Amino acid sequence: KESCSAAMSYVRSRGPLFGLDKDYFFNVDIHIHVPEGAIPKDGPSAGCAITTSIVSAVTKIPVHRTVAMTGEITLRGRVLPIGGVKEKVLSAYRGGIKTVILPKENEKDLRDIPQEVVKELKIVLVDHVDQVLVHALEIRSAKDLFKATKDTNLGLKAQYTGHSYH
Question: In the chain, pLDDT over 70 holds for what percent of residues?
């Protein structure tokens, strides 16, 4: 529930950057259903995925099919470290994923993953959800997503410089 709330708060606050009218969320209701969400998990590591799903839905930009992501987000879009990196990366690899987006603060956990797996994947390390969106959505460049003009961005600034592991 916390991940969903943080994701919605972030997307609402950044709506103008995505080219949405400032009143967009007054006319749209978003329902997020997480099957088996009542089963205890190890933390709010779905924040990046939930945020990406919402942004994809409201902008009508699809998510890359071969991208996996994990990371907790704050209300301001900062991506926080999570647990279980080795297990998550290995599962993604076995599932045919080509790109894995991880919190930058989890870079140290990559040494626990077999190097032959790491070499096969594009690992993208991020510290802000704007970076997640640029790598996860089917866009050519950040400008395809962050469309706000000087008149509509209300002082918001996209933070989409990403870090690639290799």
Answer: 83
